[in-house]
Amino acid sequence: MxxxxxxxxxxxxxGSEPAENAFRYGVGLAEENGATIVLLHxxxxxxxxxxxxxxxxxxxxxxERKETAQRVMDQMKSQVPEGITxxxxxxxxxxxxTACRTAKEENADLxxxxxxxxxxxxSFVMGSVSRYIIHHVHCPVLVVK
Length: 145
Known about the structure:
The chain is α/β, with parallel strands linked by helices. Helix content is 51%, strand content 21%. The chain has helices at 17-33, 45-48, 51-77, 95-105, 120-126, 129-136, and strands at 8-12, 36-44, 86-93, 110-114, 141-144. Strand 1 (8-12), helix 1 (17-33) and strand 2 (36-44) form a beta-alpha-beta unit. Helix 4 (95-105) crosses helix 6.
């Protein structure tokens, strides 16, 4: 039997219901294991680079997205019980790649990620962040519905 020591749990959050479910599950695991939580919010570069967004970004849209991300992070962090160390990371990039890079940088032992709930066709066309993470990260991944 392999026993895994969990010291650091990365939880990507975006304010969605699946991400909130993953957050709750990850917090429970952190409590049980005395682990540190790293909350990650990615400013999605896929959205940022559309031509229409480029114009809006020049007018402060990126700053607004960062402020919104910070509000999401502050709200999530306020729900972490006392005694659990919680770090927040806000990064711009492609969500799956950024989550994998952050997991490595933070030395994560586990990633707890929400399932987007997309159907098969939508996942094929749009891609799936959880699927990308599963196939490209160095540590175990728990996908929460």
